[in-house]
């Protein structure tokens, strides 16, 4: 099926084509029809499957036609709540591009930046508001944001919003909206808490959609783990970056302090990197993300909170410098930053002895074992299911060089 086969506005079809979308993904195919009909939807699908377009396309379409027939088209009709500033900016960009040739206007508000420009923008006609909870409630309390005409509420990355403690904000938001509304609940993962929240918000006859393959890892991502000593991780990262000078590499670390330390370690060997984490000002995070997105920056070091859900084109490598320790599912979100759409991606995790319990939790969560880049034997490549993968071959070569360097160093000490 193609997007042209849906009963969509011609201008929206044009926007879809300009974004290079040809056929709907599974989550889009199952979500678009019920949302077009105005039904509540609870949708769960792994990262990188096209969830944003799954609700953006039908909402833009419905508002476009509704505005043509309404006598009072003023007032925000749809609110999309998201957990992070970066995701708010990303979704605003997606909605704006898709609705470029329609009469629907989208605007995003989030903290970390001056609120005066946002207040001024709210005075103009806005149909879809994409917002983080904090800034949204600030503007509501100050009287600058009116939500009494909202017809649709969308919760995106709902699982992450719960992780960040936004459940009270979500319930407070629902209490301020009209009782008769459409509610769309989108999440990358599902658990007991998410189900409880979803069922308390959506209509009892809501459409439930779950795209959950046995392996939650995208088929476009080749991923592996290498066992290394904690103090050797910087050497492995250095060689991997040097082996792939033209590749876009996203490195995940555990903490803000860790991010800065790794960046300084790379700086000492003349490798240019930037960091993004919650300790950075919003304007700096935005600038760094744009540099990475445009290709002006090849290596970005990030924490989970700041990079969750962001869609950056052409990330070829994801490196788990530290394994996620709080939630095993963060592994899926991390490596989902590569291999997006139809492009292939490579991911490698550095696992120290202390991190092996976290690796076990990850393998339990994904219901599969992660292939090990075993450097203890000369024929280790033969053990890899994806040994013909150019990207992982480069990882192996980079790691092998580090190991060879260590062996030579030990021999020198013995002499």
Write structural notes for this entry:
The chain is of the alpha/beta class. It folds into two domains: 3-211, Rossmann fold (3-Layer(aba) Sandwich), CATH 3.40.50; 221-411, P-loop containing nucleotide triphosphate hydrolases (Rossmann fold, 3-Layer(aba) Sandwich). The chain is 43% helix and 15% strand. The protein contains 16 helices and 14 strands. The strands form two sheets. Strands 3-4-2-5-6-1-7 form a seven-stranded parallel beta sheet, with helices on both faces. The longest helix is centred in the C-terminal third of the chain and has 25 residues, at 390-414. The radius of gyration is 23 Å and the shape is elongated. The termini are far apart.
User: How large a portion of the residues is in β-strands, by DSSP E?
Assistant: 15-25%
Q: What's the CATH H-level homologous superfamily of the largest domain?
A: P-loop containing nucleotide triphosphate hydrolases
Count of DSSP strands: 14
CATH third-level topology of the largest domain: Rossmann fold
Instruction: Provide the domain count.
Output: 2
**Overall helicity:** 40-55%
CATH class of the largest domain, named: Alpha Beta
Could you report the average pLDDT, rounded to the nearest whole number? 86
Low-confidence segments: 376-389
Question: So what's the overall shape?
Answer: elongated
CATH architecture call of the largest domain: 3-Layer(aba) Sandwich
Query: What is the number of helices?
Result: 16
Strand arrangement within the widest β-sheet reads 3-4-2-5-6-1-7
Query: Alpha-carbon distance between the termini?
Result: 69 Å
Secondary-structure class: alpha/beta
Order of helices and strands: HHEHEHEHEHEHHEHEEHEHEHEHEHEHEH
The largest β sheet comes out as: 7 strands, parallel
Q: What Rg do the Cα atoms give?
A: 23 Å
């Amino acid at each position: 099926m193609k997007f042209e086969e849906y009963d969509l506005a011609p201008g929206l079809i044009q926007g879809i084509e300009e974004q290079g979308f040809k056929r709907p993904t599974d989550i889009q195919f199952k979500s678009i029809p019920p949302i077009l009909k105005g039904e509540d939807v609870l949708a769960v699908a792994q990262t990188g499957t096209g969830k944003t377009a799954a609700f953006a396309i039908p909402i833009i379409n419905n508002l476009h036609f509704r505005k043509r027939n309404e006598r009072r088209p003023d007032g925000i009709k749809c609110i999309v709540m998201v957990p992070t500033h970066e995701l708010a900016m990303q979704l605003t960009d997606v909605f704006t591009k898709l609705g470029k040739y329609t009469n629907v206007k989208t605007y995003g508000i989030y903290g970390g930046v001056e609120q005066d420009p946002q207040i001024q923008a709210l005075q103009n006609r806005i149909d879809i508001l994409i917002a983080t909870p904090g800034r949204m409630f600030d503007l509501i309390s100050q009287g600058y944001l009116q939500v009494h005409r909202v017809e649709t509420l969308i919760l995106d990355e709902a699982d992450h919003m719960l992780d960040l403690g936004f459940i009270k904000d979500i319930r407070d938001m629902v209490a301020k909206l009209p009782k008769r509304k459409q509610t769309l609940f989108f999440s990358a993962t599902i658990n007991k808490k998410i189900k409880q929240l979803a069922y308390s918000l959506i209509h009892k006859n809501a459409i439930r959609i779950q795209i959950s393959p046995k392996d939650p890892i995208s088929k476009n991502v080749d991923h592996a783990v290498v066992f290394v000593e904690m103090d050797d991780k910087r050497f492995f990262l250095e060689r991997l970056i040097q082996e792939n000078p033209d590749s876009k590499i996203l490195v995940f670390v555990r903490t803000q302090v860790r991010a800065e330390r790794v960046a300084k370690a790379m700086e000492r060997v003349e490798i240019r990197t930037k960091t993004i984490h919650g300790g950075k000002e919003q304007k700096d995070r935005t600038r760094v993300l744009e540099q990475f997105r445009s290709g002006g920056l090849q290596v970005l070091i990030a924490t989970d909170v700041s990079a969750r859900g962001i869609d950056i084109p052409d990330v070829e490598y994801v490196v788990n410098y530290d394994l996620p320790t709080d939630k095993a599912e963060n592994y899926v979100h991390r490596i989902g930053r590569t291999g997006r759409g139809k492009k292939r991606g490579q991911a490698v995790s550095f696992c120290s002895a202390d991190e092996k319990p976290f690796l076990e939790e990850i393998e339990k969560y994904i219901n599969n074992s992660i292939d090990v880049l075993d450097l203890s034997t000369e024929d280790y490549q033969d053990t890899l299911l994806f040994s013909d993968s150019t990207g992982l071959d480069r990882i192996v070569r980079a790691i092998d060089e580090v190991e060879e360097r260590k062996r030579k160093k030990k021999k020198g000490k013995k002499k």
